[in-house]
Amino acid sequence: MNSLVHKSLVVQLQAGDTERFPVLAHLSYDSADPFALTVVFSHDGRVLARWTLDREMVGEGLLRPVGVGDVRLRPESRGLWEELRMEFLGDSRTDGDRHRAVVYVWAAAVAAFLRDTHAAVRPGEEQVCVDDFLAEIMAEG
């Protein structure tokens, strides 16, 4: 069974008051970190941002609004297709607000990616080696 899952998608990025423009989103899942998904956004060969997301939260975001912190997800309808709206909040700006980017992803592609991750590690069957986790944290301190 494959423990690594990857998918690259063209998504729509909207930063500030700009119009949407296409960027690449590289989604990855590694069963060694079974609760997390990684998304790397890139454009013209440059990495724009890298986020680690909760796998269950992404699945819930396809169905209903979720998130209250730096990441907020919710389904949106765009006529013929459904999208996942992903809002990311960044560092504070000089005016006291925060940098903000919104990414729109075709919901069916995200659902297919999640199904692939569930084939690698079924929800509820995730395992984390607590000893390794604690050793990693202690080494960083």
Care to describe what's here?
With 141 residues, the chain is an alpha+beta fold. It contains three helices and seven strands, in the order E-E-E-E-H-E-E-E-H-H. The chain has helices at residues 55-61, 107-120, 130-140; strands at residues 4-15, 21-30, 36-43, 46-54, 71-78, 81-92, 98-106. Strands 4-3-2-1-7-6-5 form a seven-stranded antiparallel beta sheet. Strand 3 and strand 4 form a beta hairpin. The chain is globular. The protein starts with a strand and ends with a helix. The model has no long low-confidence stretch (mean pLDDT 87).
Features:
7 strands; 141 residues; 3 helices; 7-stranded antiparallel β-sheet; alpha+beta
Instruction: Specify the biggest β-sheet.
Output: 7 strands, antiparallel
Q: What is the number of helices?
A: 3
The string of secondary-structure elements, in order, is EEEEHEEEHH
Helix- and strand-based class?
alpha+beta
Describe how the helices and strands are arranged.
Blueprint: E1 4-15, E2 21-30, E3 36-43, E4 46-54, H1 55-61, E5 71-78, E6 81-92, E7 98-106, H2 107-120, H3 130-140
Antiparallel strand pairs: 1-2, 1-7, 2-3, 3-4, 5-6, 6-7
Describe, in short, the structure shown.
The chain is an alpha+beta fold.
